Amino acid sequence: MKLRACSSALVTAALTLGLTAVACPAGAATASPAGAADQRPFLDRLNTVSTVASTVPENGDVNPYGTFTIRESIGDLHRGNVLVSNFNNSANPPSGEQGRGTTLVQITPGGTRTTFATIDPNNLPGPCPGGVGLTTALTVLPGGWVVVGSLPTADGSSATAMAGCLLVLDKHGTVRETIANDYINGPWDMTAVSTEKRGGGSGRTELFVTNVLNGTVAGGGAEVDEGTVLRITLCTEGDQPPQPVATTVIGSGFPERTDPAALVVGPTGVALGRDDTLFVADTVRSRITAIPHALTREDSAGIGRVVTEGGSLNGPLGMALTPRGDILTVNGGDGNIVETTEHGRQVATKQINNEGTPPGAGALFGLALDLDHDAVYFVNNADNALDVLH
Question: Is this structure's pTM higher than 0.70?
Answer without folding.
Answer: yes
